[in-house]
Design a protein that fits this description.
It is a single chain. By secondary structure, this protein is mainly alpha-helical. 60% of the residues lie in helices and 6% in strands. The protein has a two-stranded antiparallel sheet with strand order 1-2. Strand 1 and strand 2 form a beta hairpin. The N and C termini lie far apart (45 Å).
């Protein structure tokens, strides 16, 4: 990545551009973060290390040491299996789009969505343990949910007057579903996750599970990839084309007129 300009501004723009480039790879990373396989710019990701914790007795007569592993537990590997998965799901189109000098509004919309997805990917969740761990986990899951919803809204919302929950739910379903039954299932799940987001933002209440969040992330990731893979064959040259295409699709699904 080459950035020209004053030193401080070039540095900031360069770091931001590298982070955006890494998000292209994160789009294809594992959704299940059980094994702590993640990556990023040096200094922005906790390095893999052992942490010593000392638990002191309340009577002051002793303590118990414990060791825990933090940071990435295993390295993120670009092996042949992952590379083939990326190639078969439009990664070269994504690279070409990223490298375009004159990006149109649809290109920018897709890249913004992927950038937010990358930010969500960086939020690592914890395993449940004592009350403090559960509280930390709730905060991390909530943070991840908000960033994933920002990613899908960046892709599927076109103006501030739209009904966000309904528009995102139906447009996601229209992109992913093959029939009316699947459309309805995806639409309901997406709507439920938006209700969970509202519960967090407005009431500080977590009304979803880690399993729900993984499924939500799966749908959002696949929505982005589906658009990248098919935008040329669907004749989508700009944001306006995309808006009219997705509106036509969701109306046909809503009224069960979509060809099976």
């Amino acid at each position: 990545i080459e950035i020209k300009g004053r030193q401080k501004r070039s540095h900031d723009l360069g770091v931001d551009e590298i982070s955006r480039a890494l998000s292209l790879i994160k789009l294809f990373g594992d959704i299940d973060d059980t094994f702590g396989q993640y990556f990023g710019l040096q200094g922005e990701i906790a390095p893999s290390t052992n942490r010593l914790t000392l638990a002191y007795r309340v009577d002051g007569k002793g303590f118990s040491p414990s060791w825990e592993r933090i940071g990435p537990l295993i390295p993120f590997t670009l092996d042949n299996e992952l590379l083939n998965l990326m190639k078969s799901n439009g990664f070269q189109k994504l690279i070409d789009l990223f490298n375009k000098e004159d990006k149109d509004d649809l290109d920018t919309r897709i890249l913004t969505s992927i950038n937010w997805y990358g930010k969500a990917y960086d939020v690592r969740t914890t395993r449940k343990g004592d009350d403090k761990t559960v509280e930390v986990e709730m905060i991390k899951l909530s943070d991840k949910l908000v960033k994933i919803t920002t990613a899908i809204e960046s892709l599927l919302i076109f103006n501030e007057q739209e009904l966000i929950t309904n528009s995102v739910s139906e447009r996601t379903a229209a992109l992913l579903a093959l029939n009316k039954q699947v459309f309805d299932e995806i639409r309901k799940f997406m709507s439920d996750m938006y209700s969970a987001r509202s519960a967090i933002v407005h009431h500080g209440k977590m009304a979803f599970t880690k399993k729900d969040l993984d499924k939500f992330q799966y749908y959002v990731r696949n929505t982005i990839i589906c658009l990248i893979k098919n935008m040329d064959s669907w004749g989508l040259r700009n944001e306006n084309d995309f808006f009219y295409w997705i509106e036509k699709e969701r109306i046909e699904f809503r009224y069960n007129k979509h060809p099976q």
